[in-house]
Give the backbone structure.
Amino acid sequence: MKTSFPNIAQYRLRILFRGAFLLLAVATIAMALYVLQQEKQLSYKNYQASFRKTGDQVLATLRHPAGQLALLNPRTENGGAAALHPILLPFPSLDFDDQNKVRQAITMSGCLVQYGDDGALCVAIGNNPWAGGFIYVAGSFVSGELMPHQRGEQDIGDAHRVRVTVTLRGQTYRWIAPFEKNGDPNAVQTRGAHGRLTGFLDDDSGRVGSRPVKDFRGWIWQNTLCSKPGQDDGAADCPRSSFFSLRLPVGVLQDELFQKKNPVWPPADLDNIKVRIEVLPPDDGSPLFDSQSAVAARAFAVGDLASLLLPGESLRIKKRGTADGADLVSLIGAEDHPDDASRLLSRLVRRLPVDEVGAPNESRESVVTSAGIYDVTLIGDERSVNRSLGVVAARVLWFVGAMLLALFVAWLIIEIGIIRRITMLTRRAAKVSKIVKGSGGLDQFDLTDLRGADELGVLASCLHDLLRRVKEDVEREEIRAEQEKEMWHAVGHEIMSPLQSLMALHGTADSQSSRYINRMQQAVRVLYGSASPSEAFQSTVLQVTAIDIGAFLGNVADNAPLVGIADVRFSGEREGVMVRADDYSLEDVVTHVLRNADRCRQPGSMISIDLKTTETAATIAIHNHGSNIAEELIDKIFEYGVSDQLEAGANGSRGQGLFVAKTYMAKMGGTITALNVADGVVFSLGLQRV
């Protein structure tokens, strides 16, 4: 027994097109997933190396003197000049008498804070409480040649001087330290002077007492070279850098040390101690340097290590031997794009398989300082790779979505524009082919080479049979149309002859009969040679001119009884309103509307014609008192052949008048509408004013 599948070949093109587009869509998604999987594998390997590198950078930073200083002062943040506080040094004290030792100590420890071109400053205390409880200040500033103060003189306004203000625990200490040159004060001044900064209590008087502060110590050294290149080192106005170091005796701290057996050091309120340094020039000029108004560069702090951490990584630093065992510092890497990737994409990235995925990385190291041992724990989080890939996937999604959208649009165009039309034509052509084959016909068109079992082959076979029958139908239709046209020619010719005779009898200009004969001739010319009345009316070309609508409507109302329409009244301006219209066609429109109004009005009631105008339009309202138009017909009464009268054809009403009215109004650029009112119907005709 032979089994056949006659319908599979008909769907061959559709299966081919849809299968191709489906394969392209699957390949696009598979390619995106493969790229993400490879990217994830590579990212995991890179993360292992990046984690080790981050650990090395953290340890190298903490083992540097600046890092050790940050460990000793974990809460210290140099946010600017207004927040200058002492910090704890990794040394017992500063050898403030030796310039080189002081410079080396503050530079290597990272204590020195830069204030741009104005100078630098370090305010600190030693890590040994038995060094005396002093606050050390060291720094530099730029000025001209230093002017010394003569020892024994109480007026210090003619010399360079340093003013120091320390505020802590509700008390304020103020010292003024003028520069006193070493050696013979009467000797000739040389470049690069150095000397003492002798401290006195400051009372803002510009004068000092005879006895300096006992434990206040200070030194200053001025460089012999200009601080700016290109200037003569021997010039008097050459700006030079001066380095100074101070030891400040703070009584509150010193008293606390000697009152307790085991004093707390550093002080718990170290961050609340405020220090202000001012370098004043001779006379009353503005300060050469003021730590409160100058802008300081931010010093390194332990919190800066967070910038080295990737999202999800955590860093904990604990000082070994502390009683509470709490973390000194706990940092977590910030999220770069926490909201860029959706949960669905993140879940998809997590499910992508990769090789050699182990447990989260963890590194434990120690940093040895003079103040103790610090344990550093760095914990990695490989989920940050998934989050980063989620962000990448969100961006790739736009490109994949665009490609899928392009494929969908292309498929939709082919499906709707080609395959769907071919399918419809195939079905309809197959149905028509059966009728044509049953009726027979002449074999005028040869499409046998295009026949086949697929869709286009079926379509070619159907068209081969269909076109022969269509040709026959076209030939018969042409014969019928020619016969009807000849009939209309004959009818028009026979009607035009007596109308010509009537025009000769009633052709005077003042005769109303002449007007109606002209309208009859126009109607015959409209229908003359057309295949149908509706086609004739729609193909009519009107001669639109400017007419006085008031005079026109008045004439129509006056002559209405002559055509069998009594009781027509016109209200409105009789002259001066010019509109664009065709005189005869507009009279046909108004007459058709009046006949409908006359047929439907109550016996003895009046038909009113009102004219209303605006700057751009004129509206003619024809109102009759009678029954309303049925709601289901009010939108259809202007169509050809529609009438609200039963047996309209027998009574001579063919539903043609309102169709003509709407057609003519449209050709004149106007409108016509019908509206049911409480006591009847109002037809509104709108025309453009000239």
